[in-house]
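Hi W.,

Here's what went into the run:
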Amino acid sequence: MNGEQAATYFRDTIKAIRAEIGQVIVGQDEVVEGVLVCLAASGHALLEGMPGLGKTLLVRTLSQAVDLPFSRIQFTPDMMPADVTGTNVLASDEAGARRFEFRRGPVFTNLLLADEINRATPKTQSALLEAMQERSVTVGGHRHQLSEPFLVMATQNPVEQEGTYPLPEAQLDRFFFKLIVPFPTRDELARIVTTTTGTHSGEAKNVATGEDVLKIREIVREVPVAEAVLQYGLSIVVGTHPTGEDASPAARKYCRYGASPRGAQALVTAGKIYALLDGRYNVSKEDLKRAAKPALRHRIILNFEAEADGVTPDQVVGEVLDHVEAGDKDPIGV
Amino acid sequence: MQDNKLDLRPFRRRVRVLRAWRGLALGLLLGGVGGLVWAVLDVTGVWFTEWSWLGLVFAGPAVLCALVALLLPVSDDAVARSIDRRAGLRDRLGTMIERNEAHDSFDEALRHDATRHVSELRARSVFPVRVGRWQYIAACAVALASLVFLLGNTWYVLSPEASKAKAEMEKIAAQIERVAKPVLDRKDATEEERDFANQLDAFAKRLEKGRMTKEEAMQRANELAKQAQKLSEKRTERAFEKMQTAREQLTMAKLGEKGLKKDQLDKLNLDSSQKQLLDQLQKELGPNQRQSDSKFNSETMQELGLQDMDPSLLNLTDEQRDMLREMIQKKLNDIDKKLANSQNLSEDELRQLLDQKQALQEMQEQLDISEEARKALEEFMNSPEYKDIMKAVQEMRDAAQQVNDGKPLTEEQIKELEQMIEELAELLKDSKYRDMVIEQLKAALEMLKQGKALALCQGACLSPFGLNLGISPIRGFGQGGRSKDNFFAGYGGINKSDQEEKGEGETSLLGVRGQRRNEGEEWFIEVKAPSAMGDRTSVPYGKVLPQYKDAAEKSIERQEIPKEHEKRVREYFESLGGGKN
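Here's what came out:
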């Protein structure tokens, strides 16, 4: 498959999945696109939004479209790591001999919805996050490999903070994108109500397979990035570091810590996917700008002053982008 | 399939054009700032300029910067990335240029994609020539500089009086510039003369620009005229020196032909003891023998160019010289006898005798030299060359005196002097010292010519302000002349007309205003300049003018001035301009 064919294959696959999701999910275009980017990038998505905005439906529809198994974990404070990963249970075989047998938890799936992840204790959270990073689970000294593709979509409620355990920075960093699920518009809401309360509810068809997903992940890695574009992306990342030489004024003022190297990886990988979705064979600065907020918003840690001023991470990233853009001059300059 | 070779040449050319356009603007801005500074200097009178120079200041850096910008190298990478930005190609070209040699799965597709996009672009639309920020700033700088220059040079348009004064000043300036130029252009001009010519030039420019009040101009003209006069005098002094050298060289050459050398002639200059000895010897000869020939007096010696030589010995007659020789010989014999019995003499007496002997021997030698010198000089004085050169020198001396008196030589006079030198050269053609003498005379004439130029400068400075120095408007018997007190006196007819008449050389004769008799002749004393022009006083004109005006007004109030002249007196002081109280 040559470059043009690979790009076409990628675009067609994503378009088909998206079209199927669109049959069921009304609106939420950016969230759907973000989830698909995570799928193509082999990353995980953290969705932040109010309950009832279609997050579970989104994952279920996606699983139907790509024909992959789907699990959902509703996190609660009393949930134990074993409830996520699985555990060894005492079982007897046909001969009556007893032995420990590993009973796989809900994490052993391809698409996992970790609902309200911040309600679980850090211990339980970390069990899931290990699985997310290592693509494997270790129970009783045995390592159990998760099947690929593996995509976690964790959700958290931004309002109800009582009795929650906010995810630590190190764990947040493992999410490829943090997507904000907005409340639907009036028109979208009308369509949602009409669809869900009527006799004909939408059903997603299977348009791709796990193999397809793995293939598009390989294609993404092939997309070239020019040095100038890469430097632009790195400028965005280092611009979020308050103590760095290239720190933007907003970062100096409002950031405690900037984005990690994983942030830079996420930015460039997402840029590649956006380039392919846009029908190009190269990453552009615009692609990086487009990916900046979902890739970095959960990776920068704001200071007290930002909280006091009511500054959000998105505003800081926006200002960092403006700062980097201002420094990116036309090389001809006439 | 489309050829994947990317051709950025049209874009590179366009970028060069744009850079030249920007360079032009930056250069123009630079020129504009420079022009503004110059315009300010022009307005403040520190350093004058003209439109043409100002234009050159604007255009020079602009053209230079445009050329430099045009020739600066343009890299493909920069052009590609710039096109990406300007044409919204989303870094297609930049990536392609960077991965030109790569052959990964997307590279071919990328090249094809980028080439296709570029082929749809036109260099002109990607890099349009626009009037941008720099062009506006440059235009503003040039406009500001021009405005400052324009306002500084056209203020007089607002007032008719000022306009008239300016026109008058411009006329004067042109006149001064005309006479200053030859001084500046002369290769043999001294540093001092060049400095003076530069000052004159600057003065002319200030006048032309109308940046001086009339009083200031008059004061400055006065100063410059004095300077011109001093320089002119220096020139004529040098001319005198050259002529003197010519005569001295000729005389020495003639004496040399007779075997007399310079060191021998130097012996004829008697010191006080030798004079005393000669006087004593002459006394001893008796009163009848003391009467010397007075053929060689100081005047004659000066004519011969031997003004440093004592003529005492030259004026002795042959008879006197013989008698002196005899007497000296006799005295020497006496001294020798005394010396023969030296055992009876004290040491002092012995030294005295020896000194006397030596003095007498020297005198003997001097008498011999003077005899030869006298003969040689008499022979030279009777030769036609001597007469001719003396005539030539005399005429040049007269000319030098004329220049020194502030009257420049006329062209006719210069021609006559040149012709005379040529004639003299012809006469001396067989002499080996011809070149030497003619060269000195020609140098002297050159000095006089330069003196003439300086005298013209002097006239040009003063005459426009009615301060004619040495250029008399008075005609008739007893032309009068400039004294040290700067006045002219004489007796003659008066040019009462207001019409200008041509005088000698470049002199203009103007009528003298005032109440005079209508007929006949009269004695007159005409003061030609204010007291500041004199050699003894130096009160600035502007300081005394208000006092004079006050005095005149008081006289009018006291009715000391006839009614019909009151208006004239007032007009006079007003015409001077600075007579404000």
